[in-house]
């Protein structure tokens, strides 16, 4: 009975810890937003209203969030990182920071605080192009980093004379990192399609329903990436 209660408390503590993160709440709202977009298919109705209202609400979570990537832009990079990956990483930070900054002006426009609606809509499109650019940079960075990980994992395999490579702690750590980067690669690549859908760059192929489906999947991936590590419960 005590063990069951301990497990329940630990699980509930993880849920509380998760929901206390502004980023986690934002991604949950994002899943609702794009799920509603998928259901509405761009047609007027309840689902579209949920899509629009959730989109506006999410912008509040992102107020001043551009500072995070601005800090990443000026922060030093790990030693040994190839110059192309450094440039791509810094470009991603610059583009994402610009997107988040312009997104605040879009929120001011849609809230009625900023009166120039045409300017706000233009800045909204520019911000989406910045987000698309940052997703492209992220995709290329993940591809490059996965290549580096694969190379180092092969070196570890060659160095192992006896025993399974899965018993080697360093190999397992790099394998875990590779899996995490694979998931991040899928997410960033799919986000490019989401951005193209929001910008209506290919409206006949990337419909609101396709945009909603891709956006919902990347939101679920983001929610998964933010999950806290489960603590080990000692059993008698």
Automatic annotation (TrEMBL):
It is found in: Peroxisome membrane. The keyword rRNA-binding does not apply. InterPro entries: PEX11. Pfam families: PEX11. GO terms for cellular component: peroxisomal membrane. Keywords: Membrane, Peroxisome, Peroxisome biogenesis. One of its GO terms (molecular function) is identical protein binding. The keyword Membrane applies. Its main location: membrane. It comes from the Eukaryota. GO terms for biological process: peroxisome fission; regulation of peroxisome size. It is a multi-pass membrane protein. Involved in peroxisomal proliferation. Promotes peroxisomal duplication, aggregation or elongation without fission. Homooligomer. Interacts with ARC5 and FIS1B on peroxisomes. Belongs to the peroxin-11 family. This is Peroxisomal biogenesis factor 11. It comes from Arabidopsis thaliana x Arabidopsis arenosa. The lineage of its organism: Eukaryota, Viridiplantae, Streptophyta, Embryophyta, Tracheophyta.
């Amino acid at each position: 009975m005590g063990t069951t209660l301990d497990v329940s408390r630990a699980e509930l503590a993880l849920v509380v810890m998760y929901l206390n993160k502004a980023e986690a709440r934002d991604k949950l709202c994002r899943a609702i937003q794009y799920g509603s977009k998928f259901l509405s298919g761009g047609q007027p109705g309840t689902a579209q209203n949920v899509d629009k209202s959730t989109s506006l609400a999410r912008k509040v979570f992102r107020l001043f969030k551009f500072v995070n990537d601005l800090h990443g832009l000026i922060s030093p990079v790990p030693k040994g990182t190839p110059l192309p990956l450094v440039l791509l990483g810094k470009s991603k930070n610059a583009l994402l920071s610009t997107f988040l900054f312009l997104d605040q002006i879009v929120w001011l426009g849609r809230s009625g605080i900023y009166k120039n609606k045409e300017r706000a809509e233009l800045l909204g499109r520019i911000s989406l192009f910045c987000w698309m650019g940052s997703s492209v940079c992220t995709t290329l960075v993940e591809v490059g980093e996965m290549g580096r990980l694969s190379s180092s994992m092969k070196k570890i395999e060659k160095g192992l004379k006896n025993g399974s490579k899965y018993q080697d702690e360093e190999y397992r750590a790099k394998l875990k990192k590779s899996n995490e980067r694979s998931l991040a690669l899928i997410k960033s690549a799919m986000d490019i399609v989401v951005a193209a859908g929001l910008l209506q760059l290919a409206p006949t192929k990337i419909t609101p329903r396709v945009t909603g489906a891709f956006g919902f999947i990347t939101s679920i991936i983001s929610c998964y990436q933010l999950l806290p590590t489960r603590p080990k419960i000692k059993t008698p």
